[in-house]
Prior knowledge:
Low-confidence stretches: none
Radius of gyration: 19 Å
Number of helices: 12
Strand content: 5-15%
Structural class: alpha/beta
Shape: globular
Oligomer: single chain
Distance between the termini: 35 Å
Amino acid sequence: xxxxxxxxxxxxxxxxxxxxxxxxxxxxxxxxxxxxxxxxxxxxxxxxxxxxxxxxxxxxxxxxxxxxxxxxxxxxxxxxxxxxxxxxxxxxxxxxxxxxxxxxxxxxxxxxxxxxxxxxxxxxxxxxxxxxxxxxxxxxxxxxxxxxxxxxxxxxxxxxxxxxxxxxxxxxxxxxxxxxxxxxxxxxxxxxxxxxxxxxxxxxxxxxxxxxxxxxxxxxxxxxxxxxxxxxxxxxxxxxxxxxxxxxxxxxxxxxxxxxxxxxxxxxxxxxxxxxxxxxxxxxxxxxxxxxxxxxxxxxxxxxxxxxxxxxxxxxxxxxxxxxxxxxxxxxxxxxxxxxxxxxxxxxxxxxxxxxxxxxxxxxxxxxxxxxxxxxxxxxxxxx
Length: 384
């Protein structure tokens, strides 16, 4: 695989999607990732594609037109608070900000740009780390997500290209918006590997959520116990993605790459290290070539340690897409540039130290529980 087969969808305008200065969702992480790859000489200008803005008609493939109108009005200061709350905007999680419709439409348009490049054969793989807003619903914003770019993209793939889509979500938060959108659709298979909703937003994603109607059996959830570490996380991921892909045989895969399962993430309770982010794209890459002639679209997602975790995790996806070897150290030029702005010490290596945190007391119990969860989640397809 050469880098002629990949495109990187990017615009500095991704930074316009900004709730407030101290809100945990910060798109600076996309710029940090972009700049890290540039400093490594791993991102050639010929691979960078400027995204288009999604049209109202494209957003309406998933979102209610009244909701879209409300988002437009809110971003221009013309929506009453009470009405905004009905739509999930103007809340603590998803506050109103200027031009929010325009900023959100660009993120959706970026994922649609990635889709067109891959589905039209102009690229085998495409990355849009500005996307992955998987909590957005038909008529409601939720969990920092206004429009759901993955849901729009999947419906767009169905309508324009008639393809079967496997959606793989490795965000620590359950990919609820995408799951419920396609819950009764047998041509979309969703697989979400996340921290159990017992302690974490949005509280859904149980193994018993398997789909409805004709879509029954095409929804897979692997809710992992809090404090899950690398080996157990990777066992769940590797086992489920390989078996689900073999069962569904997709035409294209769309991976949502939230980077918040890491020990450092301030909003979650998992204990993974960078080791999982080295493996996630490798296995996705293999599956894409095994079943989809390589067709793979990768989007971003959660990730709230924007300095130490997200740039490394997302860069590793691009390096894997292009079969670029991962060096031991991050480029000093990148560290020197951003350390002045970072409130934490930036890492200088791609892997985390083995003694990053104290041993987890319940490790064997957690691993056993997770293994049982995987077994139960995959039991229906193992039976057939």
